[in-house]
Each structure stands twice: as structure tokens, then as C-alpha cells.
């Protein structure tokens, strides 16, 4: 099942700087087919904020970074 990651969006994520936490998080979520809505709800942010992180337009606030690291660790097991 796909959670709506368009080919264009996936390409934007691939082209973005993977050294940015949000972009790396996006790659992990895309690979594991984790829906943006689920991520946004879990982190109490908008879906647009998550999309912006995933393509490197903006970066997560420090308050979200720790939770993002936990989610990444769980998905990479």
C-alpha cells in the first residue's frame, strides 16, 4: 500500500541534502511507507511541516528532533 508519496515528491527527497535530519527522516519514512499524516499527528505538527522537512525546505524544531530520532531508530530496526 502506498500512502501518497508522488514520484515527484520522492525525487525531491532524493535530491535534497541527506545530512539534514528532516530529509533523512523523509527518506526513511518513504522507504517504510509511513504516511505523512501519521508522522504529523505523532509529532503534533502540520502535514505541510512534515513535507517541508522531507524535501529540505525547512528543518524540524529542536523540540521535535529527539522524537524524530526515536522514530528513525524504530523504523531502521
What does this structure look like?
With 77 residues, the protein is mainly α. It has one domain. 65% of the residues lie in helices and 0% in strands. The chain has 5 helices and no strands. It has helices at 7-15, 21-31, 36-43, 47-54, 62-75. Helix 2 packs across helix 4 (47-54), helix 2 (21-31) runs parallel beside helix 5 and helix 3 (36-43) packs across helix 4. The longest helix is centred in the C-terminal third of the chain and has 14 residues, at 62-75.
Annotation keywords:
single chain; 77 residues; mainly alpha
- Which H/E pattern describes the elements? HHHHH
The level of helicity is: 55-70%
Shape estimate: globular
Radius of gyration: 11 Å
Q: Classify the oligomer.
A: single chain
Counting structural domains, the number is 1
How many β strands by DSSP? 0
Weakly predicted, low-confidence segments: none
Please tally the helical runs, counting DSSP H or I stretches of 4 or more residues. 5
User: Which whole number gives the mean pLDDT?
Assistant: 93
How are the SSEs placed, and which strands pair?
Blueprint: H1 7-15, H2 21-31, H3 36-43, H4 47-54, H5 62-75
Helix pairs in contact: 2-4, 2-5, 3-4
Structure summary:
With 77 residues, this protein is an all-alpha fold.
